[in-house]
Amino acid sequence: MEHLKLFSTRINIPRLIRVCEEFHHWKELVFLYVQYDEYDNAAMVMMNHSPVAWEHVLFKDVAVKVSSVEVYYKAISFYLEEHPDLLNDLLKVSAFCAISAAFGHPMLPDVDWWDVILHPCNPTPL
């Protein structure tokens, strides 16, 4: 990993991405995706290989830059399942993305806290 950090501007990133995928170097793969500005792929690798590749601070930085609504929705679901205590921190950092992802999403779960997020002044009665 140290070598990647030192020489990230001189390496052939697409080729190294394929090698890291082949040999299951998930942390290095996340680093390369971030360096290559492929934040959607970085987030998916962190969620799919969370025991090895997930770090909360890095995930928050990547989640803010994710361009796909589906990936962001999967990130919220990932936090609900694996790290519910940190979900509030993720939503604070990327509140705009959370609201954008929630509006009009076809798989939006029917959970009361979504109403609170979308309509904080007028929540639906329980």
Would you identify the CATH architecture?
Alpha Horseshoe
Overall number of domains: 1
The beta-strand count equals 0
Tally of DSSP helical segments: 10
The largest pleated sheet is described as: none
H/E topology pattern? HHHHHHHHHH
Spans with pLDDT under 50 lasting ≥5 residues? Answer: 120-126
Summarize this structure as a short list of keywords or feature phrases:
Serine Threonine Protein Phosphatase 5, Tetratricopeptide repeat, 126 residues, mainly alpha
Structure explained in plain terms:
The chain has 126 residues and is mainly α. Helix content is 67%, strand content 0%. It is built from 10 helices and no strands. The chain has helices spanning 2-6, 13-22, 26-35, 39-48, 50-53, 56-65, 69-82, 87-93, 95-102, 112-118. The relative contact order is 0.09.
What's the helix and strand layout?
Layout: H1 2-6, H2 13-22, H3 26-35, H4 39-48, H5 50-53, H6 56-65, H7 69-82, H8 87-93, H9 95-102, H10 112-118
Helix pairs in contact: 2-3, 3-4, 4-6, 4-7, 7-9, 8-9
Brief synopsis:
With 126 residues, the protein is mainly alpha-helical. It has 10 helices and no strands. Helices cover 67% and strands 0% of the residues.
